[in-house]
Amino acid sequence: MSSTHAESTQAASGGIHANRLFTASCLSLISTSVAFAVVGDIMNALKTQFILTNQQVGWIGGAALWGFTLSIIVLGPLCDVLGMKNLLRFSFLCHLAGPLIMILAPGFALLFVGALVIALGNGTVEAACNPLVATLYPNNKTTKLNQFHVWFPGGIVLGCLACFLLSMIGISSWKLRLGLILLPTLVYGFLFLGQKFPFTERVQSGVSFGGMIAATLTRPLFIVLFLCMGLTASLELGPNRWITSILQSGGMHGILVLAWISGLMAVLRFFAGPIIHRLSSTGVLLGSSVLAGLGLFGLSYANTMTVALATATVFALGVCYFWPTMLGVVAERVPKGGALALAMMGGMGMLASGMIASPQLGRIADNHLLERLDTTRTLSVLEAAAVQLPKIQAAAPEAQRKDFDPFFADVTNALALTAKNAGTLTPDTAKALRAIIGAASSVPKADDATKKLLGDTTSLLGPADNYGGRMAFRIFAPFALILVVVFSILFVRDRMTARRPA
What is the pTM of this model? Predict the structure, then answer.
């Protein structure tokens, strides 16, 4: 009998149905990953409809990441006290409420709050399900955690394909896309309903809460892995948050590239067991760091779908094992750390990628896109907008005319700042161009002048947004070298330890 089957049978004998709990855990992770795919897909739509900067959208996308940290850090260590069942009830409520808040949001503030609520649900799933999987399969932790985390990229594939199919049949509503998150949420809520949950492995082994804290915070290896988790997660989740938006700006099907990356990751994680057994965990992390850096650097040169898919393949090979293998190494080498150690790792990963990587990639993109905006052409578009926007407003229904005031303000402000800076464009210029696109695209029956303004602005801003985003990838990629150094040291240490006589 296999160890996994024996563990499942043992759990079931106590009224705990391991297979059902594992399946429900996978579906809860699908809710998390569908949310990741959908929020990434709607970033351009949010920029246009609400006239946001790349950095503001980065904060919305980032909230859907670092908000994870709030719940996993607060609730993860309390997993034994509150119970995994109650944590998953909370995640269910967050996955229902978060999309609805964003759908009903009138502007940036509630979009941010809704993304944060979704992230609270995401973090709670990890806070409960990582120790749940480790407890259900104590003799096969790293492999089962990798198989559980198959459904993060797997869910991204499902979310990306659903968004793509909606666009193919002419449904462009970003609100409907957010509604996709509710589907797996309802299913996992049903599967967890009425189930008995085990005590965590830490409780079963008799380690006290204080012992868990000491075992976690006093281990130098844990501190090193904790810091590395910030970089591994940032290299994976930060760029993945932006890939769709950046490639779409360059006229490519960014959602399909993200689906390709996620599909490869899902397949590779499913076969994690033999790969980790052959190379060792630290060997896998070392190879992943090299490929992740090379793949991300390659993506910074992706100006066609062929190049994008080729470099995205290398990137996927690099990042696919980062998250679950980092968790598996901690679960195996710091077993007394229990839910606290796993929660701190997950929290660090999402905090770094959400509060640092995602918004900073947006900030870098905002700064570099100006390099691809022709000053003369840009000023011509802004001046044409200053003339055309009042006409668009006058033609709109009276109840909607006030909605155009922010558009005027952005265009006027950009022209004033450019004049003040002796004709030099500023970061506010891109915001003004998005305001023009938002105003011109909101007209049901646009005249020729409005259509020309929309076309001129889109053709001007799209390539600049694409270039700025690719430059952000190029600047970010070298951080992988830090991981290469650290994991090389750990890998060599493991090899030397394995060769010592018993």
Answer: 0.76
